[in-house]
């Protein structure tokens, strides 16, 4: 396959950056998208140019490190697929592909396609946990969890914190990410004692990080490689309102 | 837990989640008004006497406890407050969104989510402008030819006369904008108030669409009927 | 036998494991360990490198105990450590199924599964702790699979005859890691953990303490964003940096997984245990071309219903559907009638290699075997197969573009896990005082072969329960270590800076990846699934030559003052080029076959691995003797009081 890539290049956080065009003549359809970039980088290095910086690690769709907005869509055209699992057979010969970094105030560009997602860690830090110091746990069977709750909690817990929801949202909101954790922990009996503090603190951290508010456009859930459902945000809203307007105290 | 956040209305007002909840509640108030307003409008099909009498009755609601037109003024104040809050929140959220995405994408993909959702802000602006015109037109009569206070039927017929087709056109556009706004607004409000659930999602979407269609049809029936001469 | 390629040193022993009945040893050790006064803990700083299951759980737990923790990871968030990719599950001797499981049975299975090359004391402790891990994780909100009654579900895994594996669909590692990560972030919020993501450890700070000898007091790290080299010091250093499977270039490890931290610690005197023990997982998606950057694991559970076969005739290029039943060789069922397609990982992998070596492999390059679900679909129906394996089939189709419901999957073994690692005693302390090593980075509990669902168990056991108890003993006995002298810091930073400068100054004509790929080829070819004296000796010539070439021809673009991914890779590959040689030496010296180490010279008449307990019932702990010097072998004899070594048989 022959391809034309237009890639966002930016030397550092202060650099203005811009799109740079590259021609690739010999792309195998069996390559993953990142392997295609590897091949380009090998060429750039030997040509004495700076290779394109991009984040990646596990390359099996679970670590959440890879990103890339491909032709305007986070993680590219294939549904429920991270960039590292996207393969070139999904593109056609001669295609022009635009590659940009996640765009968000809260995710500043570090270099080229690499952005700083530490805002997500800040949100978790604010309350995305259950306080259970090591050694304090009762027997695992002490509290049964109804299967439907356990399954829904798992579904929300599948979030890989890649940031595609933020990249896709016209408001630059990270509400899907925040709501996934609020839902996961809020559905489990173990998560009840901190449930209402958790949601208030996490939303506060979300807003402080500079993310936009949710206006339910639904772009996030479409872009999410793990298919985190939009109704997690309703769950978050419900808990948040109960905690503030409803003044639910922690038990 | 080391610190406890302020659990009160101020937190609600400050946070992005709270702002959406405020928009939802104020939006619901405005929707209730829209329903009542439409029911009133449809009385035009029952003739001049019926609708003019209805308009006069509006001024007497709550009597004798409330003085003449007091209810109307209370309602106006409440609606205005709701509208101002609704728009303020919308403005603040929009500004927040703009700040959250300072650099736009070079390659803009087509919308994946809902079009109605993407048109809320500009739709809202169009509706706001229309409301101003609408009040000047049919409440104060400033821009209505030969406006007669209390003669609702007459004013309507004069307003949507065939030669004033542009008024009808503008009215139509605005009502369609209201329809889109309602369609997404209802779904969004349900979500913002935390009442959405996966089981209800389909029903909710259908109900919101149906409601928006009914409202648009109800509101448009009056000017169309006048323009084509069914009501004159 | 010749030992021209290594030198022999003094035997070593694990001096920390108590004697007495095996069930009592861990509680004895905990009781005998000195405690640190709670008021003093606040003044003690522990450095933890890595945030996977072991590092994350250790960091959180040490902080909960009151220590000041300074923690590093090279990823942009601690939540991305490669533990996240573990699919299958985690073992625990809960006996919730009432199927005869017990701590003793898990202990027995693990020692046997490790082909009698692990310490009994360590493995027993692991089995004891396994149940507490499940309790802890449930309390943290890990959403394990549950049954309709609301209780936890279990499955049997990796050929175990009891159902003791807890799981969260195919994402157990992810969920366990997020539990540890969240506990860690809670401590970050509380100010007890100072977290440094996107930092890579490049050296150990050693302080010579007079009579008490040299000890680890800190680490030199590079900020991967700004390139800044900085030293962090403390009272003890914990390495939780994972395995070194990426020596093979292609593996199921993450692209960034590396051996730099443990290798540089090794050069400061930490012995390296059993480097040649590598686990090759039988069910991975085969290589599709030269561009391949990593291999993707397909869960072992697929072998429960899939049948493995190749054509009977070598060089048969017909489409699988065109090959009639009687021209197919279901070789696992043929050779191992008792276990069939469910034989352990090492055996399944080697059998696949053998049939491919005979020219009967399928797919590009003939490096693949079929994993066929046609029978399962016929027997269970398409919907049932879809419900059970749907997500795996989808993943296979995404990567290969082939529909596994219609045409058999192609699979091939790939490097997955390294049982070897830095040698540690019962307290998980290496031979460098003050340097503790946990999780896959140490050599300890799996012997020569790791059982399925045991890696997660070991990582969390080390981090949540073992290290936090044993490190206190070291801290208490070494109160008042004093400031780290400035010279020690300057010296360590100087070493790091010198290597970076050297890498950047070569400006040759080959990329880092091209060297890494070539090293991977050598290792896979000569130190992979089957090792021979001849091949290993050849590797022993090729690797130093390649290393030489690397230091002359590598091209690392850019500068050291900003994000430079080529520079990061170059440092890691430089270390792999040294570690690879030690792996080969270890493999060459161990002339027996055991677990993941198969020497062609040591097999029985059926081609099965033949252990040599008389000569090799020991841990090979290697000492670094300096660049270009022969490494020194220290032997730790293994004693088996409770599980008598026997030949593994799966026929």
Automatic annotation (TrEMBL), chain A:
GO MF assignments: 2 iron, 2 sulfur cluster binding; electron transfer activity; metal ion binding
Family indicated by similarity: Belongs to the succinate dehydrogenase/fumarate reductase iron-sulfur protein family.
Residue ranges of every copy of the 4Fe-4S ferredoxin-type domain listed in the record: 150-180
Record-annotated membrane-spanning stretches: none
Cofactor: [2Fe-2S] cluster; [3Fe-4S] cluster
Keyword Iron-sulfur: yes
Name the UniProt record assigns to this protein: Succinate dehydrogenase subunit B
UniProt record, GO biological process: aerobic respiration; respiratory electron transport chain
Domain of life: Bacteria
Alphabetical UniProt keywords: Iron, Iron-sulfur, Metal-binding
Annotated organism of origin: Thermomonospora echinospora
UniProtKB/TrEMBL annotation, chain B:
Entry's transmembrane regions: 21-40, 73-94, 115-136, 165-182, 203-226
Cellular component GO terms, alphabetical: membrane
InterPro entries (UniProt xref): Cytochrome_b-558, SQR/QFR_C/D
Annotated keywords: Membrane, Transmembrane, Transmembrane helix
Domain of life: Bacteria
Stored SUPFAM superfamilies: Fumarate reductase respiratory complex transmembrane subunits
NCBIfam families on file: sdhC_b558_fam (TIGR02046)
Protein name from the UniProt record: Succinate dehydrogenase / fumarate reductase cytochrome b subunit
High-level lineage: Bacteria, Bacillati, Actinomycetota, Actinomycetes, Streptosporangiales
TrEMBL record, chain C:
Membership in a protein family: Belongs to the FAD-dependent oxidoreductase 2 family. FRD/SDH subfamily.
Main location: membrane
Catalytic reaction equation(s): a quinone + succinate = fumarate + a quinol
Keyword entries, A-Z: Cell membrane, Electron transport, FAD, Flavoprotein, Membrane, Oxidoreductase, Transport
Active site: 345
Domain Fumarate reductase/succinate dehydrogenase flavoprotein-like C-terminal, residue spans: 516-650
Annotated organism of origin: Thermomonospora echinospora
Protein name: succinate dehydrogenase
